[in-house]
Design a protein that fits this description.
The complex is a heterodimer. By secondary structure, chain A is of the alpha+beta class. Chain A has a domain at about 65-125. Helices cover about 40% and strands about 20% of the residues of chain A. In chain A, helix 1 runs antiparallel to helix 2. The longest helix of chain A is centred in the middle third of the chain and has 27 residues, at about 100-125. Chain B has a domain at about 120-185. In chain B, the strands form 4 sheets. A two-stranded antiparallel sheet of chain B has the order 1-2. Chain B has a two-stranded antiparallel ribbon with strand order 3-4. In chain B, helix 2 runs antiparallel to helix 3 (about 135-150), helix 2 runs parallel beside helix 4 and helix 3 runs antiparallel to helix 4 (about 165-190). In chain B, about 30% of the residues are buried. Classes of the chains: A alpha+beta, B alpha+beta. The interface between A and B is large, with 61 and 57 residues.
């Protein structure tokens, strides 16, 4: 059986920022006619397929998480850099003791780590939460957590969904939603299947 | 599911112009910036399932599972005749419930496959992690070799199709086994 080919849309990303011991990571891949959500936990991978013809809506909600992280990382970076500056001995580096040298190297290393983290977080841009809705579920896509990255992914998959379903303008959506609100709820016409109609189990 | 779309933050129903815009637009209720892409599937009605029709004429084909019900089509998996109730459609193919279940459990229908075990990662972990406490490798190296070879043909990740991890696990395990054999050989010769 030939394996389907997938194109990576996002890297695997932890569902929770604070998951340290047990991390379930989630990534998004593009297939021929569907999106594949991969959830990797330990040594198993779970898959969810969202077919383009079934996707009803994609909602992106901006969050403050990125700004909070930037403030925290920036603050820690500032403290580390200040500590580095104020602990530099007055003597020339050649005259530093072993302890002084080790302390400056450790502080410099810490400052570099925080500087890189801050820069990466800052350059990645504002954060968001992304939800994908089908007729039977609304699924959060944890790997789409940055507004710019999510915009790029939507730009890539939107034409595929439109090709499968057609397109609606914003005004058409509003008009149809208002029609839905005005329309009376349909009366229940189908009766539930009686228990004896369920298919038998074959052993 | 209700065709109305709500804000994920405040749960207010969105009815104004926030749909299919290229940028983030504030939610009219809570002001959180949102982008909502809506597609025609939102307004598609879900057809209720068909109910099976009884056999009226004597020469009509009947369902394998419900002999009193009229067959509407054969199963694409086993060829048994199915009534409308037993006919399960999956991406243009039609299966009976038994074939659908077998297709999922035996991984014959790939579109239904929703989990895979990464044996290559298990083998690599068995080969790498015990190196922190080297003595464990006398047990774990053969285990890593066994897992890598035993599951060589097992399907890897659905999205990553190479055998690099298995190869790395085999090479590391062979190195560790070789190291232990050399050590034992060296110690036994030194004593004698």
């Amino acid at each position: 059986m030939a394996e389907p080919k997938y194109q990576r849309l996002t890297r695997l990303r932890a569902r929770s920022q604070f998951a340290v011991i047990y991390q379930s990571r989630s990534g998004l891949w593009l297939g021929d006619d569907h999106l594949l959500l991969v959830e990797a936990s330990g040594y198993t991978e779970n898959y969810k397929r969202f077919y383009f013809r079934d996707i009803q809506a994609i909602t992106v909600q901006a969050t403050e998480r990125g700004r909070v992280w930037n403030i925290i990382l920036g603050g820690v970076l500032l403290v580390t850099v200040l500590a580095l500056i104020f602990t530099i001995p007055k003597t020339a580096p050649a005259n530093w003791t072993g302890n002084q040298m080790a302390g400056e190297i450790a502080l410099g290393f810490l400052a570099a780590i925080f500087a890189v983290s801050f820069l990466l977080s800052f350059l990645a841009g504002p954060t968001c939460k992304t939800y994908l809705r089908t007729a039977v579920q609304t699924e959060e896509l944890p790997s789409l957590s940055r507004v710019r990255q999510t915009g790029n992914v939507i730009r890539k998959i939107r034409p595929l969904i439109v090709a499968a379903q057609g397109e609606l303008s914003g005004e058409e959506v509003v008009a149809r939603l208002q029609e839905t609100i005005r329309a009376p709820a349909p009366a229940a016409t189908s009766r539930p299947n009686p228990p004896d109609e369920a298919p038998p189990v074959i052993n | 599911m209700n065709p109305l779309v709500s804000c994920p933050g405040c749960r207010a129903v969105l009815l104004k112009d926030v749909f299919n815009r290229p940028d983030l637009t504030p939610c009219p209720s809570c002001g959180v910036p949102l982008r909502v892409e809506v597609f025609p599937a939102l307004f598609r009605r879900i057809n209720p399932g068909e109910s099976a029709q009884p056999v009226v004429m004597a020469d009509e084909s009947s369902c394998f599972y419900h002999p009193q019900k009229k067959a509407v089509r054969p199963c694409d998996g086993c060829g048994r005749f199915l009534c409308a109730l037993c006919n399960c459609e999956l991406l243009g193919q039609h299966f009976c419930p038994a074939c659908l279940e077998a297709g999922k459990s035996k991984k014959k229908i790939q579109k239904l496959e929703n989990q895979r075990t990464r044996y290559d990662s298990i083998a690599l972990s068995l080969a790498v992690l015990p190196m922190l406490i080297f003595y464990f490798t006398i047990i774990t190296a053969p285990m890593a070799l066994f897992v890598a070879i035993r599951y060589w043909n097992a399907p890897a990740s659905l999205v990553g199709q190479n055998r690099l991890r298995s190869i790395a696990a085999i090479l590391l395990a062979l190195l560790q086994i070789g190291g232990w054999i050399t050590l034992i050989f060296f110690l036994s010769h030194r004593k004698s």
